[in-house]
């Protein structure tokens, strides 16, 4: 079936309809249509015909710059994911090429040693932005940070592990009031430290909106803007991340340390060795 055929989408989304039946009928389909242009349709169709994915089975979130969907793996996808210990369903994050804010993006690309030269054409920038999320997740995964394992990236489409249980995505910290505890705050600060010291990165957009809680364990998501620790603004971004997290917990009555002392304990010169080790990722 051709990707520009209307039936293509009906077939792709109807084939495995567990989620949609549970939810609000046509809304998912409308969300998918809103994020997807002709090129994206071609990419998804390619992934389907190669057996990487079998069908899109639901919508998780739809924002200004991306749509996040659940997808069932195809036979080839299953083989690839077996190696990574990832089970179906997985997550497909589709970046909307028309709404990405390029001025914002550039702040996080220029200054990152991995992207010394890059094209400023819209399509190439989007591609780079999505690849950046893939590479950041992959560095974090290798460094033992709790992140969704990335599976593959193709232009504006990123496939990754679902953080969830029985096919249901885990909730954000933001909507998990019972998780606003001292141990949770400490666990998140540990993750931030690991991202810096072991993965050589700063998340740079960390907040309770980009942390999922699965079995009382925090998982960091949404890493396209994450930069290497050598970025000129790395410490500024790190301080902002820490402020966001500490503010959230202090508002909920948790005793929080000073951002500055946490920052000092994270940033120390010996960490550069770790960055060098994985800087090729
Ligand atoms: N791997 C994942 N597992 C489960 N839910 C996810 C995953 N990735 C993203 N989500 C959900 O999708 C939403 C949007 O994803 P995110 O990567 O934060 O994109 P955006 O740039 O639009 O904020 C998140 O708030 C989260 O609820
Ligand atoms: Mg987000």
Structural topology:
Elements (H helix, E strand, L loop, with lengths): L5 H9 L3 H5 L4 H9 L2 H12 L3 E10 L3 E8 L1 H9 L6 E6 L6 H8 L12 H21 L7 E5 L2 E4 L3 E2 L2 E2 L12 H16 L3 E2 L8 E4 L2 E4 L6 E2 L5 H18 L7 H8 L5 H7 L3
Antiparallel strand pairs: 1-2, 2-3, 3-5, 4-5, 6-7, 8-11, 9-10
The protein binds adenosine-5'-diphosphate and magnesium ion (MG).
Question: Could you explain the architecture of this structure?
Answer:
This protein is α+β, with helices and mostly antiparallel strands and 281 residues long. Helices cover 43% and strands 17% of the residues. The chain has helices spanning 6-14, 18-22, 27-35, 38-49, 75-83, 102-109, 122-142, 182-197, 234-251, 259-266, 272-278, and strands at residues 53-62, 66-73, 90-95, 150-154, 157-160, 164-165, 168-169, 201-202, 211-214, 217-220, 227-228. The chain has a five-stranded antiparallel beta sheet with strand order 1-2-3-5-4, with helices on both faces. Strands 6-7 form a two-stranded antiparallel sheet. A hairpin with a 2-residue loop joins strand 6 (164-165) and strand 7. Helix 8 (182-197) packs antiparallel against helix 9 and helix 9 (234-251) crosses helix 10 (259-266). The two termini are 37 Å apart. 39% of the residues are buried. It binds adenosine-5'-diphosphate and magnesium ion.
């Amino acid at each position: 079936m051709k990707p520009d055929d209307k039936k293509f989408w009906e077939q792709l989304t109807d084939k495995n309809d567990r989620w949609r039946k549970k939810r609000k009928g046509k809304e998912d389909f409308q969300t998918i249509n809103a994020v997807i242009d002709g090129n994206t349709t071609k990419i998804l169709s390619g992934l389907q015909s190669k057996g990487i994915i079998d069908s899109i089975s639901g919508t998780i979130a739809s924002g200004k710059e991306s749509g996040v969907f659940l997808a069932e793996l195809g036979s080839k996808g299953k083989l690839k994911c077996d190696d990574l210990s990832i089970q179906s369903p997985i997550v497909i994050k589709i970046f909307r090429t028309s709404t990405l804010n390029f001025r914002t993006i550039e702040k996080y690309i220029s200054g990152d040693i991995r992207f010394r030269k890059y094209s400023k054409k819209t399509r190439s920038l989007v591609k780079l932005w999505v690849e950046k999320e893939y590479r950041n997740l992959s560095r974090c995964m290798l460094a033992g940070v709790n992140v969704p394992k990335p599976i593959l990236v193709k232009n504006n489409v990123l496939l990754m592990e679902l953080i969830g249980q029985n096919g249901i995505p885990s909730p954000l910290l933001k909507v998990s009031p019972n998780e606003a505890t001292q141990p949770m705050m400490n666990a998140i600060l540990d993750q931030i430290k690991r991202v810096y010291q072991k993965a050589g990165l700063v998340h740079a957009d960390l907040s309770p909106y980009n942390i999922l809680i699965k079995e009382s364990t925090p998982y960091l998501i949404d890493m396209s803007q994450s930069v290497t620790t050598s970025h000129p603004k790395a410490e500024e971004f790190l301080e902002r991340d820490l402020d966001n997290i500490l503010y959230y917990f202090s508002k909920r009555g948790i005793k929080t340390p000073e951002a500055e002392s946490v920052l000092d304990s994270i940033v120390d010169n010996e960490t550069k060795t770790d960055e060098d080790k994985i800087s090729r990722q």
